[in-house]
């Protein structure tokens, strides 16, 4: 679908959908691997809304390795301490070209390019006392040695009370914008919450956007213990912000996101998105931080649960598996048009039911799992695309237990469509129809106001539907 409106769209008008190298390649992705994923995305996923590729951490470390970071790494810097791509892994970056040639190649495919960046200034720049571009200050003047990342050794913090700190970020962002980058994932910003650093980075992006005439989306990481009380500040300064620590291909990681997305869903708004983190699908762990080379350990039902929950919660989707070597089933799931449809065209997204289910009432040792229901209203997209389910609704019914769950008659249709519309004629469409795996058992039963949504939810599974007036 294309934009039929001549009005400029809001930045990040829908939650971004893209690919990030972290889950598959960790710190070691190469130019050829990035381009292979870009070409695959263009051929198989672009029409379904996937349009962004992000090179994750340490693209400037020529000694980068799988499963960790390097102390005192010989980072590749320019004369002002700004990071440059390793020309061995990224040959087009040689001779000071940076990511400009790679960004141009990605743009030629109709896609966007982003990179990961750490908060602060490289330790190596401080050790060499390199000048801060456009100022009389040096790296030692602006560094904050007391506020450094606890898990990555590359950088010192910046002393935001010093005028040279803003100048450092301004110069860094000017370089990135000159390369044509569209997206920046900036790490070590929220845990703890570095509001001065976030605001400074936002100011630098705004200056670069004004100078080069192109927008740059800012994604903040990580997200452990991020409070919703920060939402106004986050909206002022970023397009995305993580709401959890790193998520991997474990059911427990997905389960934890139910409560987080329920907490953040009421705060999702056009251009500013709470992010439930990576989608660890497909071929991951090739040279990653965690685990061995593998296809995702999540079952197909667990993967469907993640996709339905992220979309109903309007979280960005950033898949982590190497696309060309992922299974056909993975690509089928990602190519589902319902993903973009619900991300782009839903409102009033909320959790409506959450109940702990026991095999025997009152016996705690017979606990089976949680039955969770989400609802949303279908809405036209901000780009002018009409909703495929205008006037309708979306519902997702989740089951966290390890056995199948029979819904019975507990979910009345009127709880999704509203009391005023309960007597209208409604049809149900399975949003996972045609997806790999077993066909969903979900249906409408009953008459009039007594109608219910019923069926069977598989272990760790989801039923995801659209409801339309006839």
Automatic annotation (TrEMBL):
Record key words, sorted: Disulfide bond, Glycosidase, Hydrolase
Gene Ontology molecular-function annotations: alpha-galactosidase activity
InterPro entries hit by this protein: Aldolase_TIM (IPR013785), GH (IPR017853), Glyco_hydro_27 (IPR002241)
Entry-linked SUPFAM superfamilies: (Trans)glycosidases
Single GO BP term: carbohydrate metabolic process
Domain of life assignment: Bacteria
EC number: 3.2.1.22
Coiled coil: none
Catalytic activity as recorded in UniProt: Hydrolysis of terminal, non-reducing alpha-D-galactose residues in alpha-D-galactosides, including galactose oligosaccharides, galactomannans and galactolipids
Family: Belongs to the glycosyl hydrolase 27 family.
PANTHER family (alphabetical): ALPHA-GALACTOSIDASE, ALPHA-GALACTOSIDASE/ALPHA-N-ACETYLGALACTOSAMINIDASE
Name used for this protein in its record: Alpha-galactosidase
Organism: Bifidobacterium ramosum
């Amino acid at each position: 679908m294309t934009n039929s409106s001549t009005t400029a769209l809001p930045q990040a008008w829908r939650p971004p959908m893209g690919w990030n190298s972290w889950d598959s390649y960790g710190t070691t992705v190469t130019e050829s691997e990035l381009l292979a994923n870009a070409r695959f995305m263009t051929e198989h996923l672009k029409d379904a809304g996937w349009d962004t590729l992000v090179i994750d951490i340490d693209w400037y470390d020529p000694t980068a390795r799988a499963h960790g970071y390097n102390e005192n790494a010989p980072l590749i810097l320019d004369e002002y301490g700004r990071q440059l791509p390793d020309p061995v892994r990224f040959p087009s970056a040689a001779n000071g070209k940076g990511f400009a040639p790679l960004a141009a190649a990605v743009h030629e495919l109709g896609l966007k390019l982003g990179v990961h960046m750490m908060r602060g200034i490289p330790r190596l720049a401080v050790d060499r006392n390199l000048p801060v571009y456009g100022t009389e200050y040096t790296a030692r003047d602006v560094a904050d040695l007391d506020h450094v990342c606890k898990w990555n050794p590359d950088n010192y913090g910046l002393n935001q009370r010093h005028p040279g700190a803003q100048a450092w970020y301004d110069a860094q962002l000017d370089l990135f914008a000159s390369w044509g980058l569209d997206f920046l994932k900036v790490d070590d910003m929220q845990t703890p919450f570095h509001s001065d650093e976030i605001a400074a980075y936002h100011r630098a992006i705004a200056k670069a956007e004004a100078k080069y005439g192109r927008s740059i989306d800012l994604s903040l990481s990580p997200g452990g213990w991020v409070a919703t009380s920060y939402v106004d500040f986050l909206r002022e300064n970023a397009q995305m912000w993580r709401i959890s620590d790193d998520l991997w291909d474990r059911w427990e990681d997905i389960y934890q996101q139910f409560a987080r997305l329920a907490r953040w869903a009421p705060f999702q708004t056009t251009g500013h998105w709470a992010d439930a983190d990576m989608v660890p699908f497909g071929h991951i762990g090739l040279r990653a931080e965690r685990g061995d080379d593998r296809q995702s350990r999540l079952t197909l039902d667990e993967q469907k649960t993640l996709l339905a929950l992220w979309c109903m919660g309007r979280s960005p989707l950033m898949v982590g598996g190497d696309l060309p070597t992922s299974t056909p089933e993975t690509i089928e799931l990602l190519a589902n048009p319902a993903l973009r449809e619900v991300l782009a065209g839903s409102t009033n997204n909320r959790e409506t039911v959450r109940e702990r289910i026991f095999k025997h009432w009152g016996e705690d040792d017979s606990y089976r799992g949680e039955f969770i229901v989400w609802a949303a209203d279908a809405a036209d997209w901000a780009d002018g695309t009409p909703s495929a389910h205008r006037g309708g609704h979306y519902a997702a019914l989740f089951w966290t237990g390890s056995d199948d769950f029979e819904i019975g008659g507990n979910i009345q249709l009127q709880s999704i469509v509203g009391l005023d519309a309960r007597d209208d004629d409604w049809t149900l469409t399975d949003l996972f129809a045609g997806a790999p795996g077993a066909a969903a058992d979900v249906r409408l039963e009953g008459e009039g106001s007594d109608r219910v949504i019923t069926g069977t939810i598989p272990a760790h599974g989801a039923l995801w539907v659209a409801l339309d007036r006839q």
